[in-house]
Design goal:
21 helices; mainly alpha; single chain
Amino acid sequence: MAEAPQEPPAFKTTAAQWDAVRLKIAVSDHAETSLNTLAQLVGFDNWPLKSADESPAKYIELSLDELRLMPGFNQRPKLIDQLYFILKNTLADDALAAGPAPAPAPAPAPAPKARPAAGCKTTPAQWDKVRRAFTKSLMIDMRLSSLAENLELEGWPIDGDDETPSKYLDFSLDELAVMTEFHGKPARIDLLFKILNENLSQDEEFEDMVIPINQNLDKTDVLLQVLRKREIPLEYPFKLLVLPKNVRETAPAEAVKTLGQFVQFYQKISEKGVVLGEIKTILQAISSGDEPRLATWMPYRPGATGFHLIEAVALIVKSLDQETLKALLKKYGKKLDAADDYALKSSWQEISRKGEAVIQAAMPGLAEWFTEDIAEVQRILGAGESMDLDRYLLPLGDSDLELIVAHALIQHCQTKATAAARTASAPSAPREPQGILGRILSLFGRK
């Protein structure tokens, strides 16, 4: 169901502008100054909110989204612009008042040694070193939760697709300390540093490990060797990979027709630093041999080798939206939660039909590649052995996914073999299949 278009906010200040000004005010001398006083100093009218605690400190720990929900701001959103301009002009007046830098003293005392933020073990020097190094890493746009999981570190406690290293690399340690995500949580800064530092160490170890004996090999060859080691077919068609839409649409059709060509093309481009964040993530997953991440876009089974048909079909299924998945499960006999069942109402039949059409449109290309796997599925269906089909689907490890993939395979095989199956002579004492196979075949009129 299409969502209603959101109305533009009733204020002009952007999240980036607000974050920039609140971080600078936090380390200035004005955090505790009355907003009424600051407004008058910079030539504005009095600050309209009259609470005794009306100072920048009351607001600078809040994100823009949090600020707009505050009492006073939720009724008068233009107060956000007024607050932003008061703080911005206060900082500008500070810069003007500072004037030219004074001449250095004849014998200046040595600068004090940099100290970590309060309660934080990470020093400014350590943080600056790791954040500079990470700007060149392929992992810069990966989620911090994934980076922590890769090295079995403590999980990153903040959810969100924007929780990536790139969100924090532009800030100094002092600026991090006053951000909403870290204020009063110095251990979280240490965790961020640890995640970035240890992932960089892994990168360096990988680079050392894969320095080829044949010095003529380049980074592209190294990535291809990682795939070959897992018996991943480099000639696998690019169109069968389940990649983000923007990756699929930006890949040049003439240069990228196979998995191997995709890796070669974008590895060379990435050395110039002009590839999409999603492509950097893919290249990093290959370079580090991260099997779970590889399996999110290619039909690879972690812990095994090569490509597999059921994983290929499962990727197509996983690319469908949740509403379509629930409609398919309902059609195939699963009892849904009352809320999900009600939300689908009478539309589930049409939604499931469209979902099946998407899956079946992809099946001929997969069947052409996975000929041996298709033959095995046909053998199982022909024998009517429910347990064999259950075992065949077991590696997916998800009963809902197994149910939808089973239907996809059966629909495809019956489309190809219905005529032959109907003309074949029936056995004298047919056995009625049980379990998942029996339930599925009954939907297609077979007993």
